[in-house]
Amino acid sequence: MEEKEDMPPFLGTWNRVYAFILGWLLFTMVLFYIFTNYYK
Amino acid sequence: MSFIDWAVLAITIISIVVYGLWKSRGAKNIEGYLLADKELPWYQVGLSVMATQASAITFISLPGQAYSDGMGFVQMYFGLPLATIILCKTFIPIFRNLNVYTAYEYLENRFDSKTRSFTAFLFLVQRGISTGITIYAPSIILSTILDIHITYTTLFTGGLVISYIVYGGTKAVAYTQMFQMAIIFSGLFIAAFMVVHLLPEEMGLVETLHLAGKMDKLNAINLSFNINDPYNVWSGLIGGFFLQLSYLGTDQSQVGRYLTGKSIKESRLGLVMNSLIKIPMQFSILLIGILVFVFYQFNTPPLFFNKTEVARIETSIHAQEYHTLEAAHKNLYEVKKNQAQTLVQAIKNHEATAYIDQAQQELHKTVIAEKKLKKEATDLMTQNDSLADTNDTNYVFLTFVTTYLPVGLVGLLIAIILLASMGSTASGINSLASTSIVDFYKRFVNKTANPQTYLNASRWATAAWGVFCVVVALYAGQLGNLIEAVNKLGSLFYGNILGIFLVAFYLKQVKGSAVFYAAIVTEIFIIAIWWNDLMAYLWLNAIGCMLVMLISLMMQYIQNTFSKVR
Q1: Which residues are CB-contacts of B350 (< 8 A; sequence separation ≥ 6)?
Q2: Comparing C-alpha atoms, which of B422, B97, B29 is closest to residue B267?
Q3: Could you say which of B3, B393, B422, B508 is the most buried, measured as most Cβ atoms within 10 Å of its Cβ?
Q4: pTM of the prediction?
Q5: At what angle do helices B482-506 and B103-110 cross, to 10 degrees?
Q6: Residues 1-40 of A with CB under 8 A from B
């Protein structure tokens, strides 16, 4: 169990924060893919 | 530079140094000096981590990298978010709960003193040289602008950093970095705006991107797998993951930043912030390089951007040949400019694809001819002097800034580059001092001194490492593209160091001797791979890491088997 003071200030748990980071990475890569191919 | 530029530069630098010194006054022991009393909030931890990584090299080399090779470099940072998750889940809680000053202290708890010392030694070698390179980068600027020999500008930039971190320690590093990042972000925004503003009237941002795309510069994603290509999605995700995990998890210059957080939560949030901002930030800096590239399709670029090398060839017996090449380059530029304009018009008027493709191919042919011409010029420089610096990517952005930006802005952008260098150099020297004092002096030389003795020793170590890094900087000019040089150097050691830490965290059955000898064998192996140029450098991180884990498991197995036989 995580102690209350170690909880993140958003999204409730650290695992959700990590999932958000992964989602952000995926989103960035998709954006870059579109960017690369649109202007090719 | 004009008087106003000098005034902007001086006021920015002096005010930040004075602020850092004022905020960091009163360190009474090494916890205050090396860990800023562990009282920093998450945003300061995050900015400090970012400022440590974003050196002057980032702002000098990255636009130049984009100018010559496009956006592909950004993929190197894809591994960062993945590494951040492992760091937050494993590394931060372990380091914080053990209350360590340096990452290497943990290795003695888990293994033995020889493994701790060997790992700390690898770090000192790698970080000492890398920090020297980060001092060298801004020295080029001052040398080019002031037309003063690079030795004096290196001594000045190195001396500037040493002057405030010897007194203020980690707090001075963190407080100055916070302001440095704020000025850096605003300066980059202004620089991007100015490049677009200086483009020809018919070239808006959309047309600029279309032209850059047709010239193969907007390659932000490359899905094809090639082990010799450092910049594709796979090397970025896998090689980049290992590079970032070892950099942020085992390099004291970074570990020392997030150990200053108030709590585990603040340290984690600082790293999360870094992982979310870093990729867009690097993308934006590369994009500035692309804008500068397009700018130079409509404004005559020099044949070679390094003025010092050009001056040397112009005073040699090859001067006439070089001038002939310059004239040919000028003619080629006019042809290329017309072809670029034709291509942009064709895209704007939505001409048939075949017509656009033909315009693109013609432009492509001229670009190849231009590259050939440049190769002839650099060959001439090498003929003249075999030690000539034939890579001019570090000078592209600087040439643009000093030639085309208005009065005041030049001073601000030069200040940004100097500030960025100060931030990363300060962290580097500070971490070298921490490791020397905590992992060697306190461990082997003087185990039971009073707090004041350790504080004084830390200040002396900071000054000594500062001088060492300046000496390295004086010889850093032969390393080609600086950002690649730093990453290549890191890749020689980082994978190995990371492997040692991963064995410590996850392979509980492996003991000190097995991992120690595995690390030595791995380092020899990695240097051999690099020496024979067998693969792109990013992969060395992954291979080094996996080799240490594998060899240490094998050695432990053999050791256990022999013990049972006895």
Answers
A1: none
A2: B97
A3: B422
A4: 0.83
A5: 30
A6: 5-9, 14, 17-18, 21-22, 24-25, 28-29, 32-33, 35-36, 38-40
Q: Which range (B22-26, B471-475, B482-486, B538-542) has the least confidence?
A: B482-486
Q: Which residues of chain A have a CB within 8 Å of the CB of B272?
A: 17, 21
**Residue B214 to residues B118, B187, B347, B453: CA-CA distances in angstroms?**
50, 29, 10, 63
Q: Which of B126, B116, B146 is nearest to B469 (CA)?
A: B126
- List, in sequence order, every residue forming a beta bridge with B261; answer none if it has no partner: B40
* Dihedral angle sign, alpha carbons of residues B64, B68, B74, B75: negative
**Which among B348, B212, B188 is positioned nearest to A35, based on CA atoms?**
B212
For residue B193, count other CB atoms closer than 10 A to its CB.
11
Q: Please give the Cα distance from B325 to A33 (Å, whole number).
A: 39
- Cα–Cα dist B71/A40, whole Å: 13
Q: What is the distance between the alpha carbons of residues B488 and B417, in angstroms, rounded to a whole number?
A: 22
Q: Are B84 and A24 in contact (CB under 8 A)?
A: no
The nearest CA of chain B is from the CA of A4 a distance in Å of 10
CA distances from B525 to B73, B77, B544, B545, B554 (A): 27, 26, 8, 12, 16
Q: Which residue of A has its CA nearest to B360?
A: A40
- B15 burial via Cβ count (<10 Å: 0-12, 13-18, 19+): exposed
Chain A residue whose CA is closest to B218: A36
* Cα dihedral across residues B80, B83, B85, B89: positive or negative: negative
pLDDT band at B478; cut points 50, 70, 90:
low
The distance of A13 to chain B (nearest Cα, Å) reads: 11
Say how far apart CA B127 and CA B215 lie, in whole Å. 37
Pairwise CA distance, residues B493 & B489, whole Å: 7
Q: Which of A1-5, B58-62, B134-138, B168-172 shows the lowest mean pLDDT across its residues?
A: A1-5
The CA distance from B510 to A18, in Å, is 29
